[in-house]
């Protein structure tokens, strides 16, 4: 399975960058990719963000400084290392999309990251 096929299986559509690279270049990871999420995935991530915000006061007492994974409105895992957490979540069937966010009392901007891009 190609990297593009793996992303498609997760509901992610991959588009080439503005330099008009060929699909072969894209599949060989010779170019940077723009990843466009379906709107339904973005809506789910927004809902997970709202759930995180509701849980934040309690999370600050129990998980401050750690990263938590939120799926279906609940914390399903936590770790001090966001990439270890992401790898574990990625290996779990049926928990995509999942929001991973650091528990902090500071305002943090969400970023879309992938352990494959480390």
- Uncertain runs: 114-118
Shape: globular
**Approximately how much beta-strand content do the residues carry?**
15-25%
- Mean of all residue-level pLDDT scores: 75
Number of helices: 4
Short description, anyone?
This protein is of the alpha+beta class and 118 residues long. Helix content is 39%, strand content 19%. The longest helix has 24 residues, at 39-62.
Structural write-up:
The protein is α+β, with helices and mostly antiparallel strands and 118 residues long. The chain folds into 2 domains: 1-37, no CATH class; 40-110, no CATH class. It has 4 helices and 5 strands. Strands 4-3-5 form a 3-stranded antiparallel beta sheet, sandwiched between helices. It has a two-stranded antiparallel ribbon with strand order 1-2. The two termini are 20 Å apart. Mean pLDDT is 75; it is low at 114-118.
Topology:
Layout lengths: L2 H7 L2 E4 L7 H5 L6 E4 L1 H24 L4 E5 L2 E6 L2 H10 L7 E4 L16
Antiparallel strand pairs: 1-2, 3-4, 3-5
Write a concise keyword list for the protein shown above.
single chain, 118 residues, alpha+beta, 2 domains, three-stranded antiparallel sheet, two-stranded antiparallel ribbon, 4 helices, 39% helix, globular, disordered C terminus
């Amino acid at each position: 399975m190609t990297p593009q096929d793996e992303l498609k299986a997760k509901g992610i559509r991959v588009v080439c960058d503005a330099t008009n690279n060929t699909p072969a270049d894209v599949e060989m990871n010779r170019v940077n990719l723009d990843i466009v999420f379906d709107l339904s995935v973005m809506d789910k991530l927004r809902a997970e963000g709202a759930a995180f915000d509701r849980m934040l006061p309690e999370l600050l007492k129990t998980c401050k400084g750690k990263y938590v994974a939120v799926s279906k409105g609940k914390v399903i895992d936590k770790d001090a290392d966001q990439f270890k957490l992401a790898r574990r979540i990625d290996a779990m069937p049926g928990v995509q999309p999942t929001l991973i966010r650091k528990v902090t009392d500071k305002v943090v901007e969400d970023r879309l990251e992938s352990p494959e891009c480390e």
